[in-house]
Amino acid sequence: MHRAPPGRTVSVSTQGEPFRAFVPAPLPPTPPIQWTPGLRRRFDDALVALGRLDAVSSMLPNAQLVLYSFVRKEAVLSSQIEGTQSSLADLLLFEIDEQSGVPLDDAREVSRCVAAMAFGIERLRGGFPLSLRLLRDMHGVLLDHPRGRGKTPGEFRRSQVWLGGTRPGNAVFVPPPAGRLGDCLDAFERFLHDDPEPTSPLLRAALAHVQFETIHPFLDGNGRIGRLLIVLQLVADGLLHEPLLYPSLFFKAHRPLYYELLNEVRTHGDWERWLDFFAEAVQVSATQAVMTAQALLALVATDRERLAALGRAAPSAWTLHDALQRQPVATAAALGAATRLTPATVNKTLAHLQRLGLVEELTERQRGRVFAYRDYVALLNAELDPEPPTPERRRATRRR
């Protein structure tokens, strides 16, 4: 549906060049959303899919095992939307050894995205409200790396930004001037807290994402913080107990449409098309997350049965197997620290797991050897990169 733009443009001048910047109206939208039967059904399907995902998380023997990997999938995908080249395998390798040969700057950025999500979830669970303060603090975590430290981490911008083009005068979109940020963000925070009127949680997450990206409150990192905010809201509102959703998979697969629909809201007030897309993203992502979690559980159960054939070595193998679920790419030393098994036992057990085809060594050296729980990583990586990491691929990466 096309309406007037949900806000107004204001005249601004920078270095003598005049341009127009967009100041969004406070949420919720006016006039209200037109709920067609199709749009209501789309939201109903998304809520059902979220309910299934939340139920799966409650049935997992240890949800933290899957959560470790799913949070990293979202960080990788969200960062890839912004142009980083790190894969999930790169991130896992970087986290155990910064000298592993992966593209260092990109891997470090993705790692900070993981840290920002973990920080946000921890603060929410400690009773801290979903607020501008929390988003600023998460932004400070996100940009705590060499490429980000010059972009005022943890602070709202004090200068003009624009999207597309070489300057505001030829940009695709110009967010509010810095002088208007305070009013925009105050209204945004009130909306997150159901002011001026209650809004259902999934709808609030959908509307808030557009509004946050339109305000563009930071010099850098707005897209990543805005996508993390989606999952944070769903957790804060109780639709998910664990941040197992990775909606950036859908956004990345449909990136041109994603950006087009965000802009259609700003130019034509077309909230309905965006809401349909957003609900589909949640439904598809939640359904895929359930399928991946179930596949991982089935793999783990099958592999545990195979390990039983090791006889007296089985207990050590099961202990190492549990550690590999928490960190499916790890060094022998890290596995020893996680399991408290002796280095000799770890090495002997890894040899058993290699012989059974459960793990694969990604390095060819005597010290600091890196191992991957191959099929587990392949399941996690299936939507990101059709090829799981292999020794040949790791050597090619180190030559880059």
What does this structure look like?
It is a single chain. The chain is mainly α and 400 residues long. The chain is 59% helix and 6% strand. A three-stranded antiparallel beta sheet has the order 3-5-4. The chain has a two-stranded antiparallel sheet with strand order 1-2. A hairpin with an 8-residue loop joins strand 4 (359-361) and strand 5 (370-373).
Features:
400 residues; mainly alpha; Fic-like fold; Arc Repressor Mutant, subunit A; 2 domains; three-stranded antiparallel β-sheet; two-stranded antiparallel ribbon; 16 helices; 5 strands; 6% strand; globular; disordered C terminus
Short description:
This protein has helices at residues 37-59, 63-81, 88-96, 104-125, 132-142, 181-192, 201-215, 222-236, 248-253, 255-268, 271-307, 314-326, 332-339, 343-356, 374-381, 391-399, and strands at 7-14, 17-24, 329-331, 359-361, 370-373. With 400 residues, it is mainly alpha-helical. The strands form 2 sheets. The protein has a 3-stranded antiparallel β-sheet.
